[in-house]
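#structure-requests
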Amino acid sequence: MKLLIAEDDLTSRTILTAVTRKWGFDPVAVEDGEAAWQVMQGEQAPRLLLIDWMMPKLDGLALCKRIRRQHSGDPPFIILLTARSETVDIVTGLEAGANEYIAKPFENAELQARLRVGQRILDLQDELRRANDILAAEREVIENIILEMRTSKRLDSAGLRLLQEPVEKTSGDILLSAFRPDKAQHLMLGDFTGHGLPAAIGGPIVSDIFYTMTAKGLPMEIIISEINGQLCEKMPTGLFLAAILIEIDPGRRQLNIWNCSMQEVFIFRHHVLRQTVASVNLALGILDQPLDRIPMIEVDAGDRIYAYSDGITEASNSEDEEFGTHRLEQAISELLSSQGEIEVLIEAVREFRGGGDQLDDISLVELSC
């Protein structure tokens, strides 16, 4: 293993070079901190470092700090050499970024043992990195399989405008739409607990049930019951699906809306919020029991229905203030007044969030009656 030795004393540097080579290392010796820093800029920079504290141009502490900042993703193992042996000096050296600390004068056996410890740790880091690379490659394969299964070509977007922005490649949100043979439309917006790969695994199960049973002309109430039963049976404890399921009759004048632990559904007429539909049922996949009966809703031509995940309303700004349902209601009202594109809703959330990160999957669907 390549070993960087940074020691300004010629005699000490020569001895260290000789003994470490005898121990099987490949030493690269330099006389000051600046020269050591230049060595660390190379493509094959050493990952095991033996650094003297007191050196000209750039001392050991400053060198440690620089190296830690530059190599945070693949950290080297740094042993600091010094004549200082007080506790405060040891703490200062370790806080600067050193992994080990050897006080001069030292026995060669101690130095060899500490170098071997560093070598073992670096070897373990390499093993962990290789394992992570394998897991990342396998995860990508699984993600692509799930995406192919979830990205159904059966989604019928007639009467819909959609917004979807996942946090990760595989979203925990799921959006499905299809028409029964009698021209009634079924729509489902779901939000699995969490996001990423664990949240995505239930999507293919739900999608297959939804489209297969809709194509057979079965009512939404039966489909919901089947989805709930299958999730209860097949999904692990703690992974469930909050969902909004909508059934609109062939004449598009009557709605059934099942809200299962999702944000309230908005029903707009022109640009005014006419009605909201709050959750009255548990999320799917928790209890295998019938859902509560719901009243039918009468709608007019041109009414708009909005279902959305909490990734929108729980988006936060720098002051930890949430976007909330009131701001979303205002944004939708302005959208309808201006007859704008649906994407302005996402822009409103981004503007509110400022430079903050998106922390949850965002999905919104607009259904026109």
